[in-house]
Write a structure and sequence with these properties.
- Keywords: Antioxidant, Manganese, Metal-binding, Oxidoreductase.
- It is a single chain.
- It is built from eight helices and three strands.
- The two termini are 31 Å apart.
- The radius of gyration is 18 Å and the shape is globular.
- The longest helix has 31 residues.
- It has two domains: 97 residues, Fe,Mn superoxide dismutase (SOD) domain (Helix Hairpins, Orthogonal Bundle), CATH 1.10.287.990; 122 residues, minor pseudopilin epsh fold, CATH 3.55.40.
- It is 52% helix and 10% strand.
Amino acid sequence: MLSTRALSATRQLARATSSAGAGAVRCKHTVPDLDYDYNELEPVISAKIMQLHHDKHHAAYVAGLNVAEEKMRAAQKANDLAGQVALQPALRFNAGGHVNHTIFWKNLIGEKNGGGQLAECALKSAIEQKYGSLAKLSAQVNAKTATIMGSGWGWLTFDPAKGSLDIITTANQDMAAGVGHVPLLGIDAWEHAYYLDYNNVKADYFKNIWRVINWKDVSQRYDAAVAKHRAAN
């Protein structure tokens, strides 16, 4: 059964991607457009991987989420509690796949457009204070992500409980929000994210992906998380 935090994250996704207003007709989830062409991240990530990852893998999570939510609404209407419980794993998996990839696409940008460059900002100061440098942070994220057994994600997050940055991993398509963290930067450790380019040498993928990180996006996520934390405390 889903944890309270995981259920909350799934419900937040549903609210954020549905029509606003009381009585509005619910919209189905869709795959977001990329802010760049498939080949912009080369040679770090090939256009072939980007097309398959975005058009096929992400699209499959979106389709699965729409089907699971439709079945859930039917189960709720029928007051079928057993059916609702049985649908929770599909909702969790597909919602996570949609949310995680939506963040991932925004976290990336080509080197010619600023990929890998972290300007002076609050996030950079926080990274240097806690980890010493961006290079040391990336090494810690890569080391922790490499310990994932099977598929999953490595995350740089903001932990509201600590009021600071943290590095975590999640299995499969579990969301960072499911364990109470605010996702800032996600590294997709599923084989479909790198295998065509790096084969079984995923360590090279983890190393190279930092060249195409969109630190402007990550920084904006950090600023928003900190502002929300301060407002709540």
